[in-house]
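Write out this protein's structure.
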Amino acid sequence: MAPDEIRASALVQAPPPHVYRIIADYHDGHPRIVPPKYFRWMRVERGGTGAGTTIVFAMRVLGTTSVLHATVTEPEPGRVLVESYPETGVVTTFAVEPEGEGASRATIATRLSARTGIAAALERWVSRRVLPGMYRDELQRLAEHAEGRRVHEPVPRE
């Protein structure tokens, strides 16, 4: 893992196509897996499933709420989905790989911005402390949903 990347993975006892569909569905699936502790709301601005989707959402971290826009691409449809945040230069990748019979390895990885300066350094410091826990929560919610153990309420649309 590169020093400018934060990554977490989890085993999900569900087939890769099912797990990927949940992640790529920004109308219903994705809003159910993001942790409401951090995500205040999420709205689809265009599309809603996979590539071509644009979203806007509010995150609350360390007492500060930020509104971010993301554009979704699928460099490997059905396997890799990427959210790019133009305001920050940050990129988050969701990857789903087969892991044994009927199971998946889901990974969330964020490449931090190469920006410099005090604000960028603070952003990297906060990201390194907050994102690992956030990703563990998100992967747990994804596993619970995909495995049919628990379907969480989606974060509000706004």
